[in-house]
Amino acid sequence: MLFILCLTLIVFAKAEKGNSCDSAIRNAQIVSRSKDVLEKCIKKELPSDVCVDIYSRQAFNPKVYCESRGGDILCNLCNSVADKLINAAESNMALDKVHELMNSLCVKFRRELPQHYCYFVLDELYFKILQYLESGNRSDQFCEWAKMCPSSN
Hints:
Helix content: 55-70%
Organism: Entamoeba histolytica
Number of domains: 1
Shape: globular
Keywords: Disulfide bond, Signal
Distance between the termini: 44 Å
Structural class: mainly alpha
Largest sheet: none
Signal peptide: 1-15
Strand content: under 5%
Number of strands: 0
Radius of gyration: 15 Å
Domain Saposin B-type: 71-153
Order of helices and strands: HHHHHHHHH
Mean pLDDT: 67
Protein name: Saposin B-type domain-containing protein
């Protein structure tokens, strides 16, 4: 199974550079670390339904889900959840509570994204939010700063 995940990631990494979905993912630096993810599932550090979603699909391939939506799904997801994640960061919410929040937010996006992909995106977003806020930036510009949305400039 690990071999299949690694092979999928290699194919994904070699995807055509001109694709808007690939570009959005690359620009946002959303990368699946399959070995780390599997270890987190084994240690029960990720929500169980995220791990079940990963096992049932036997691969992590966000490209498929983005292409059919014109690449806007990452921007829509960011705009929809950034405020909640920023509030969690600013209130110093415990990490396990942040994971519960991310999991509940992803349930709302099941039609647009598989649970495991949404969770990885939000996990990456949360740590980007922490970096962003530590730099003293305005919270209303986060999605552009993270290159999840096109710049309005």
